[in-house]
Amino acid sequence: MARNVEFFFDFGSPASYLAYTQLPRIATDCAASIVWRPMLLGGVFKATGNSSPVTVPAKGRWMFDDLNRWAKRYGVQFVHNPHFPLNTLTLMRIATGLQSARADDFARYCDAMFAAIWRDRCNLGDPVQLAAALSQAGLDADACVALAAQAEVKARLIASTEEAVARGVFGAPSFFVGEQMFFGQDRLDFVREALR
Amino acid sequence: MARNVEFFFDFGSPASYLAYTQLPRIATDCAASIVWRPMLLGGVFKATGNSSPVTVPAKGRWMFDDLNRWAKRYGVQFVHNPHFPLNTLTLMRIATGLQSARADDFARYCDAMFAAIWRDRCNLGDPVQLAAALSQAGLDADACVALAAQAEVKARLIASTEEAVARGVFGAPSFFVGEQMFFGQDRLDFVREALR
Question: Beta partners for B145?
Answer without folding.
Answer: none
